[in-house]
Structure to design on (472 residues):
């Protein structure tokens, strides 16, 4: 059986009796078993998925008009997204054994449209990392082979889609955690605008950056899922009241004006493979009649520092709640409350999380607050303004998703700074709060996937999806 990798195709096949939803779930469970060595899933909800599939097969037979829009969609969710009655750990020992008391709004909206959730996927601890090597439950391996990282932090989510163990995946982004793994694994990844999708039920890392987004094999599947999860939610005060609308593909728009950042192509960070793929993409878009124009962006060398100052500050505050009292791991050896906090946190958090909590506490400390935190906020505003300025003339901005292709396991883990610098092209969209979509374009000489990203003005997800859909 080969169900195909688009929701439309799967729904057609189910409706025409090619296979049932139960067959489909069985297929994915076998695929999960076959890809077990990649460590993409922390938990598979097998029995539950089988039971739900049977119920949906019945529903399709007896009340076809009652079926949800996404019937036939089987997805995975990253282990930072809450699903009522299911474990969620942020791939951290500190949340070992913790069970969600409620579902994230994004999850609930998908369930209401008859989505089946097949499991929760491995990620970097608290979504901090770019290689998925910081999980307390071991690294995820990229399905391309050669012991490569899948990217991070949503590495498990990317691999779950790459290996066809589910149709699509929910991941989360703070600074590239969907687009970068999508690029490393050769699939599509979308980070919506800040405020487009409710963060209710998403475990917080950097609250002014975090967004839930989608991995898939095609743009239309991505659009179908986004349409359901997008939109205002009273449970998240930062979710936008601007209506999300329909993410359809009714538009046939002509040539577009697309900017690309000249400095990126001449930046020391970019690898020869990625540079030539970028030039090829530019030429390809031009040959389709679009106008591609190089523009200046003066902040390229400051985006990583700005991002890490602000996100570590927010993380150090957000992660204060893991104190060994309220949730998760509690040290058994403490003799008083103070020691209980220290020991629970020391035992529960991994090295990268500790590093960021310390960095965040430092940049927020009395003597350094203005020099680091306040300054980084000002730089963030300048970055946002510069990006908005580009969008006053251009519909989209094109950029490679990553400076290089997937690296080998352990290549960067000894030097966190190297790993941080790999985020240089993705963090821009998060700093500016705009949507960005990574799509596969080619491969490096050694066969590693290369992805490009397009960014659009805030809340212009529809334009982005429509445009990328025209590219294949
Ligand atoms: N690699 C970035 C970081 O470690 C992005 C992570 C993310 O988007 N969650 O912070």
């Amino acid at each position: 059986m080969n169900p195909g990798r688009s929701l439309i195709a799967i729904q057609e096949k189910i409706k025409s009796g090619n296979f049932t939803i139960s067959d489909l779930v069985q297929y994915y469970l076998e695929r999960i078993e076959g890809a077990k060595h990649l460590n993409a899933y922390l938990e598979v909800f097998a029995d539950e998925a089988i039971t739900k599939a049977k119920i949906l097969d019945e529903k399709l037979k007896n009340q076809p008009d009652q079926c949800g829009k996404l019937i036939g969609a089987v997805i995975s969710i990253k282990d930072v997204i809450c699903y009522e009655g299911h474990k969620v750990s942020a791939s951290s020992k500190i949340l070992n054994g913790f069970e969600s008391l409620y579902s994230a709004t994004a999850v609930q909206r998908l369930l209401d449209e008859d989505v089946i959730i097949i499991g929760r996927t491995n990620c970097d601890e608290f979504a901090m990392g770019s290689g998925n090597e910081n999980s307390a439950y071991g690294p995820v391996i990229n399905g391309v082979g050669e012991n490569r990282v899948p990217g991070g932090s949503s590495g498990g989510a990317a691999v779950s889609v790459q290996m066809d163990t589910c149709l699509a995946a929910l991941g989360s982004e703070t600074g590239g955690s969907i687009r970068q793994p999508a690029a490393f694994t050769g699939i599509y990844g979308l980070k919506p605008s800040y405020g487009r999708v409710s963060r209710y039920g998403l475990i917080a890392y950097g609250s002014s950056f975090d967004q839930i987004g989608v991995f898939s094999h095609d743009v239309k599947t991505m659009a179908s899922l986004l349409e359901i999860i997008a939109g205002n939610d009273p449970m998240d005060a930062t979710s936008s009241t601007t209506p999300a609308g329909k993410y359809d593909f009714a538009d046939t728009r002509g040539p577009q004006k697309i900017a690309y950042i000249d400095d990126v192509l001449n930046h020391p960070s970019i690898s020869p493979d990625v540079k030539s793929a970028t030039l090829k993409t530019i030429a390809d878009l031009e040959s389709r009649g679009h106008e591609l124009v190089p523009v200046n962006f003066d902040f390229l060398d400051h985006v990583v520092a700005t991002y890490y100052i602000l996100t570590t500050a927010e993380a150090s505050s957000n992660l204060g709640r893991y104190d060994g009292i309220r949730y998760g791991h509690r040290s058994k050896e403490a003799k008083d409350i103070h020691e209980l906090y220290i020991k629970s946190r020391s035992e529960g958090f991994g090295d990268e999380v500790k590093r960021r909590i310390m960095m965040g506490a430092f940049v927020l400390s009395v003597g350094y607050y203005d020099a680091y935190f306040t300054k980084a906020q000002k730089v963030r505003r300048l970055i946002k303004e510069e990006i908005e300025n580009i969008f006053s003339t251009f519909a989209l901005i094109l950029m490679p998703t990553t400076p290089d292709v997937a690296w080998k396991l352990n290549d960067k883990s000894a030097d966190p700074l190297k790993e941080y610098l790999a985020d240089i092209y993705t963090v821009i969209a998060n700093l500016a709060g705009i949507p960005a979509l990574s799509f596969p374009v080619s491969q490096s000489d050694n066969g590693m996937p290369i992805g490009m990203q397009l960014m659009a003005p805030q809340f212009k997800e529809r334009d982005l999806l429509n445009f990328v859909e025209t590219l294949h």
User: Anything to note?
Assistant: Residues 127-130, 153, 173-177, 205, 311, 423 surround glutamine (CB under 6 Å). The longest strand covers residues 436-443. The first helix runs from residue 7 to 15. Residues 5 and 443 are 20 Å apart (CA to CA).
